[in-house]
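## retry 2 of 3
previous attempt timed out at serialization; input unchanged, resubmitting
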Amino acid sequence: MPKRILMILFALVGASIGGTFLPYFWQLVGFNGVVWLDNVFTNSILGALIFFLISLMIVEPVLRGIKRIEKQLADLSMGSLLFGSIGTIIGLLLGALISLPFYQLRIPFLNNVFPGLLIVLAGYLGLRMGSTRTDDLLKLFGGRKKEKAAQGEMLERRADDNFHKFKILDTSVIIDGRIYDIAKTGFLEGVLLVPKFVLYELQYIADSGDSLKRVRGRRGLDILNALQKEDDIHMEMYEGDFEDIAEVDAKLLKLAKLLDGVVVTNDYNLNKVAEFQHVPVLNINALANAVKPVVIPGETMTVQVVKDGTERQQGVAYLDDGTMVVVEDGHYFMNQRLEVVVTSALQTAAGRMIFAKPAHAQKNIKDSQKSSPKGISHAAK
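## retry succeeded, writing output
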């Protein structure tokens, strides 16, 4: 439909131009005396036909350009659009006033072409000033009072290049649920942004025939509702979509590049793809591993062995934060509280693993080491 409307507009413009300028063309080529050719109706029809044929060749590029402009305008805030429009109007008026003296000159370029260029340049500068200095203009016209601290004037903090306003949530981190606790503590600055295509994916999972998927999807929707009800958490919905991209992960990365945002996830594969495309990522699993208690070899702890390990005679226990502890000879202490000594720790992409052995076995080794010299000296005697 937009394509047809654009072609009709081209035809109407062509009819107007044909009715106005074709008489001069017929006069130039010597056909101005031909009544059936040189009249308003024929000139309008010819102009409309010429521009209709031109529209067949350029309508697709024009529509693509219009869609690109629409996307850019949709990403701008209302303040940027308002002050950008006001800045453009002021720039055009100033350009027209400045160009008035040039019309009095008798130099061909300066009295006809240069004033138009000057007006266009002034309008563009006004647009840039109005759209890029929105915050300063709001403070100037909004009568915003500057608050003062107890011991002097409070300095306004400006975000540096490492600050990203939008934190874009993916499906996995919403279902995980830990994002709610992290956001509630205030460690995430800026706006939590939930794209509409992520919400649709959550709804699809919640309506799944698989009971496990259905529970996970409903949990994700509950987390979103809980985040939205918190007054201290700034959360917004992104209404746009990328129809030419099928995968949700690819859409997230495209949106992060478009808004200069950060993808918040706990998906290992999405994390790696984002790093390759130079998209900033906040990985919840990496954060959880970073704040886990640090253990060093030789440290003792008390754990409860709950299952057998992959190797013979091994037992597996878990700390309160979910860290796996592999205990040598732990098979013999199944479902018992056991004091163990840490022998090593291994950091993996899936989390942290701790290897340990029973503390009494370590004591027996030390006791045997202490008693061995005496036994040797006794045998020597």
